[in-house]
Design goal:
12 strands
């Protein structure tokens, strides 16, 4: 049974309860609150956790800004103020329509790799047999982790725990986005679209042209992607260049249109989660991201190094 994310009205209370959980753990109290209740619900379909660990559905962190400070000194003030956080790249694949699913076991999805063909015949003619080939898409767990350490003194003097938790989870979300687009498929990393075998490419002889942009759309439509499903994801330097190249001589429109959101009439997004100079077009609503359980936060004030140095990890 999947545990639905909290609604918009519950979001502030959920975020506050994450900080309360961390404080309860540090003070050796029995944790309680909305975040703990949701974690217990996830335990029904995942591994049981001790009080120092908690499950967090990434969907319950939607709308948060995120970043990190090198030292954490900015969160210790005579008068408490909000930390000015750095921006993490937004999830381009989510914006483009990718679907997220939660599974427990390894996943194998049958898929059709060739199409059958219909024929028009005269009366009495024999119809030719079509051959349909099937393939299989598989998904096995890959682990993305973030390790952050802060001192007990900093925790006592500030709300650094909640700050570190939100930033760590945002870093995981950015890693998922980057892996879906550019993952190498080796050293524990998922295989991303840019390295996926069987994808079509567009060759640029020199500077990008309007014909190049239309070739991306053509290749998608040739692969039977519905025009309304096609969108573009590119690196920021691609957007910068394409917004400065005319579609054709005498045109007042650039390849990447002046609204900053469109190429060839289709949605276009720029993100630093893709390789510099890269651009992908496709039906991203067919992209499935498989999550093998929710993200887990483990607060560890008891390891040997943490105890010796008065830190938490």
């Amino acid at each position: 049974m999947l545990v639905p994310p909290v609604n918009e009205r519950q979001l502030p209370a959920f975020r506050e309860s994450l900080g309360k959980w961390a404080s309860d753990v540090m003070q050796k109290r029995k944790p309680s609150g909305l975040a703990v209740d949701h974690s217990r619900a996830h335990e029904a379909t995942s591994d049981a956790l001790d009080n120092r660990s908690i499950y967090v559905d990434l969907a319950n962190l939607r709308g948060l800004s995120a970043g990190t400070q090198n030292l954490g000194g900015y969160v210790v003030g005579v008068e408490t103020t909000e930390v000015v956080q750095a921006f993490f790249p937004f999830s381009a694949i989510t914006q483009a329509g990718a679907t997220f699913e939660q599974h427990q076991s390894n996943l194998a999805v049958p898929r059709q790799t060739t199409l059958e063909t219909a024929s028009w015949l005269n009366e009495g003619d024999t119809v030719s047999e079509s051959t349909v080939l099937l393939g299989q898409a598989t998904a096995t767990p890959k682990r993305a982790s973030v390790l952050l350490t802060y001192t007990r003194q900093l925790n006592v003097q500030s709300d650094v725990g909640a700050f570190v938790q939100s930033n760590g989870l945002k870093a995981i979300a950015a890693a998922v986005d980057k892996a879906a687009l550019t993952g190498s498929g080796i050293v524990g990393e998922p295989l991303g679209l840019l390295n996926m075998p069987g994808t079509s490419t567009v060759t640029f002889s020199a500077s990008a042209t309007w014909a190049n942009a239309l070739s991306f759309v053509f290749n998608c439509e040739t692969a039977n992607v519905a025009t309304t499903d096609i969108s573009f994801i590119a690196a920021p330097n691609v957007k910068q260049k394409w917004m400065n190249i005319q579609q054709f001589s005498g045109s007042s429109d650039a390849i990447w249109e002046s609204d900053g959101l469109t190429i060839a009439g289709r949605p276009a997004r720029a993100t630093t989660n893709i390789t510099n100079g890269a651009l992908i077009a496709g039906g991203f609503n067919q992209l499935r991201v498989i999550l093998f359980g929710p993200a887990r936060i483990i607060l560890d004030p008891y390891s040997q190094n943490a105890v010796r140095n008065g830190n938490a990890q």
